[in-house]
Structure formats: structure tokens, C-alpha cells
Amino acid sequence: MENSLTASTPIVSTDRNADAALIERYLSGDMTAFDELMIRYERQIYRVCYRFVENREDAMDLAQEVFIKAFEHLPSFRRESGLKTWLYRIAINHCINHVKKHSQEFVEVSEAIGSVHPSAHAEMEARQQRDHFRNMVGLLPPKQKAILELRIHEQLTYDEIARMSGRSVSTIKASVFFALEKLRKLVKDQKVRKT
Q: pLDDT per residue over 128-176, tens digit each?
């Protein structure tokens, strides 16, 4: 499974074929096929959910709820996109609704540390910067945060995010642009307040 995440296009095509075969088995009455699909994607869906709630137990619960929704709606899956895209869309929408409902807005956005062997002081500064950036991202609307998370942390292309979210590529680019602009403004406002 790890190879499929970094593999070239032919393996992605093979994964889609394998997904299609499992969907057909499930639709023919083989309930174990859905278990196999769940095993294939549970880590990825869990990671998406965790980015929203930053809590292991809540992320596990959300991931289970995503798979319950997928189980209920798999017969109506139109296969216009890949199963992974469809599952990500369900996960993102479910997590956004969860965040809105519980008035919690958490997304983890990581930054690369510049040095291979950072000193303790540099490591502490980097951690503070990541925490500060995460707090700033927490002020964004849930949809902007979700898109920014997929773009920065998951390193998905605009096209992939558009397919997952059901929006146009230009809408995704605009959303990322406005999210980054809002972050710049928040950082600038904080610097003005400190002086």
C-alpha cells in the first residue's frame, strides 16, 4: 500500500481497477469486499480527519463515520472519479460539518525545519512558529482551512483538490490565494499590535 502512494500512473490505474473490482463484489452481495476497501483507505481517511480535530479518538470516530456514510452510499457511487477522491470528499465534508457543529476549528499545517540537525533553541523556535502558524490557520473559515491543508500538508495538486471537493480548479486556486492573503493580514495585524 505504501508503494501505491508514491508510485507512477500505471499503479494508480491498477489501484482503480482493484477498487472497481471490490466495488463490484460488494454490489454483488460480498460484504467482505467493503472491509477490503476500508482497509485500503483507513489510514488516509484517518489522517484527513485527524488534521481537523487533532485528537486521536475523535479522528478515529470521524473516520468510522466516514466509512459508514460510504457504506450507505456506495450503491449510488457514480464512478466519475476514483474511489479515493470520493472518500476524501466525504471525509472533508463530514469533518467540516463536525467542526462547525462543535465550534472547533483545528487544522494542522506543518512547516519544514530548515536544518537537518537543529539546535535545541532552533527546534524550540521552529515549534513556536508552527504553533503560531497553526493558530493563525485556526482563524480561517473551515472550507479555506480544509483546502489549505490539502494543498500544503497533503501536497495535493489544485486539480486533485478540485476533484475531491467537487469545485473548479480556479475556485480552489482562489480559495488558497484568499486563505494565504488572510493569513498574511493576520500576521501583519499582530506585528502592528506588538509595536
A: 766 777 777 777 888 888 888 787 777 778 888 888 888 888 888 888 8
Mean pLDDT, rounded, for 62-75: 89
Q: Where are the domains of the chain?
A: 1-106, 109-195
In this structure, what C-alpha cell is assigned to residue 59? 479522528
The contacts found for 23-31 with CB under 8 angstroms, 24 or more apart, are 23/74, 23/77, 23/79, 23/83, 26/74, 27/74, 27/75
pTM summary value: 0.54
CATH class belonging to 1-106: mainly alpha
| Three-state helix/strand/coil letters over 69-96 | HHHHHHHHCCCCCCHHHHHHHHHHHHHH
Q: Which CATH number fits domain 109-195: 3.90.105.20, 1.10.10.10, 3.40.50.300, 3.40.50.2300?
A: 1.10.10.10
Q: Given pLDDT bands bounded at 50, 70 and 90, which one contains residue 102?
A: low
Give one DSSP letter per residue of 130-152, joined into a string: HHHHHHHHTTS-HHHHHHHHHHH
DSSP state of 28: T
Q: What angle do CA 74, 80, 86 make, to 5 degrees?
A: 50
The enclosing H or E element of 62 equals helix 56-73
Cα first-last separation, the chain:
51
Count the Cβ atoms, other than its own, within 10 Å of residue 53: 22
